[in-house]
Amino acid sequence: MVIYREYVPVFKALADETRLKIIDMLSCGELCACKILESFHITQPTLSYHMKILTESGIVIGRREGAWMHYSLDQKRMEEIKTFLSDLSQDDENCICKSINWDGEKCK
Question: HTH arsR-type domain spans which residues (predicted)?
Answer without folding.
Answer: 1-93
